[in-house]
Amino acid sequence: MQSIFYNALVLDARSEWNEKRVNIHIQEGKIAHISPARPVEGEAQIIDCSAFCVSVGWIDMRVLLPEPGLEYKETLEQGAKCAQKGGFTDIVLLPNTLPVRQTKHDVAFVKQHPAQSIVKLHPLACITLEAKGHDLTDMIDLHHAGAVGFTDGILPTAHTGILLKTLQYLQPFDGLLIQRPDDKLLTQYGVMHEGVQSTMLGLNGMPPLAETLLVQRDLQLLEYAGGRLHFSLVSCKESVQMIREAKQKGLQVTCDVAVHQLFFDDSALQGFDSFYKVNPPFRTQDHIDALWEGLADGTIDAIVSDHNPQDEESKNLELDMAEFGIIGLETFFSVLHTANSRRANPLSLPALLATFTTKPREILRLPLPALSVGEEASLTFFDLDSEVLPTAKSTLATSKNSPFFDVPLRGKAVGVFRAGKFSVL
Asked: Is 306 a catalytic residue?
């Protein structure tokens, strides 16, 4: 099967065709030719992309699909469909299933399923047995089985000795430790960001200190032990500054931010709607500004959806009893592009795209797709101008816990190509 994607605008800082309109000729799943010249009519299928942009395939490095064990919230198959609709060719899965992902057989289950999906699933594996923070898993076996990184997922690695040993244990094979910085003793009763809004609403707050304490501690351990450390879901200006200084020292530290943290602030909780209950919580504008500054100067490496499906019985409760988390795979780009467009100094689109194309793959040591002749085609096509209105009826997700339903957004993915397959969204 031959396909020519006609007149697409390339947005890829690594490509010689960046910010130029080209025709991409794909044959047997590989890029056979790239040219600005109009294609000759022939047997190839020609897809008019004059209204669209193209980049290498998008990757989300923080997704929770809780199969096995909690399939009623989301299955791997349905989650992959949501990812595909959101424009992703690859997603990286947290290990917080039932049971947790801690054996090579658990890793194999993810890598083999769903076999027919355009979206490739990359499993993370637990650092500790049952993600309880006490005894280490066999990370060497898990690495050889295909785990792309190690984390206890939604739970922090609180035990100092465990984190230190993990940093040392992973070094022989250049493994990545992913930490969710959250001191649970400071946030266990919290609902939202600790500040003026939480006081006015009479809700228990979650102080930035719960995050920054672990960031500070873990950076000191990283400097002592060496290794590679990734902080997931940074949300505080103090965290951004500490990570910035650690990078300047030469430490191998990276971090990501959830896309919804760039869109909402803590005033979103004024309606006591549990769909806005996330961890880390939405914070104040000064923290949000610091996150954008961190993205602009490269301190923050990646943007993630933090897709966390919760069924109605987990969300349709009083705010303090409801579970944390929202779904975000399908709305990821629309939310990010809308939030960036509202900024006085928006990030360039190639720079923004790097945070969910090349940089996550570099962090995870995954192969980097390229818009080059001879490369396997892994592409995402997207529209920057379409008006989007997500709804509970339009989502493919099993769980409907999104605060973006009925919120006007701008921009969307329109097609993905990977593994020789093309899907129009």
From this structure: yes
Residues 282 and 317 in one domain: yes
pLDDT given for residue 330 in this prediction: 98
Q: Please indicate, yes or no, whether residues 397 and 340 belong to a single structural domain of this protein.
A: no
| 169/192 same-domain check | yes
Which of 302, 320, 312 shows the shortest CA–CA distance to 360?
A: 302
Radius of gyration of the chain (CA): 21
140 lies in the same domain as 189: yes
Residue found by looking up tokens 């351990």 in the block: 221
User: What are 22-57's pLDDT values in tens digits?
Assistant: 999 999 889 998 988 765 556 678 889 999 999 999
Q: Is 38 exposed, middle or buried, given 0-12, 13-18 or 19+ CB atoms closer than 10 A?
A: exposed
Q: Which DSSP category does 61 fall into?
A: E
In this structure, the answer to whether residues 46 and 63 fall within a common structural domain is no
- With H, G, I as helix, E, B as strand and everything else as coil, classify residue 334: helix
d(CA 133, CA 185): 14
We report the CATH number of the domain holding residue 413 as 2.30.40.10
Give rounded-to-5 percent helix, strand, coil for the chain: 30, 25, 45
Q: Report residue 324's pLDDT band, with 50, 70 and 90 as the boundaries.
A: very high
CB 229 within 8 A of CB 127: no
| pLDDT reported for residue 46 | 85
Instruction: Report the C-alpha gap between 172 and 268 in whole angstroms.
Output: 45
pTM (two decimals): 0.96
Q: Which of 48, 306, 383, 385 is catalytic?
A: 306
228, 150 contact by CB (below 8 A): no
Same domain assignment for residues 386 and 296:
no
Token representation of residue 250: 């030469």
Range of the domain at 295: 57-364
What single DSSP character describes residue 200? H
Amino acid (1-letter code) at residue 148: V
CATH number of the domain that residue 326 is part of: 3.20.20.140
Spatial distance between the Cα atoms of 193 and 279, rounded to a whole number of angstroms: 9
Structurally, how many domains does the chain consist of? 2
Work out the average pLDDT over 316-330: 96
Question: Could you give the CA distance from residue 229 to residue 125 in angstroms, rounded to a whole number?
Answer: 15
Sign of the CA dihedral with 376 first, then 58, 124, and 394 last: negative
Q: Are residues 311 and 392 in the same domain?
A: no
| Cβ–Cβ < 8 Å for 307, 82 | yes
pLDDT of residue 1 exceeding 70, the answer is no
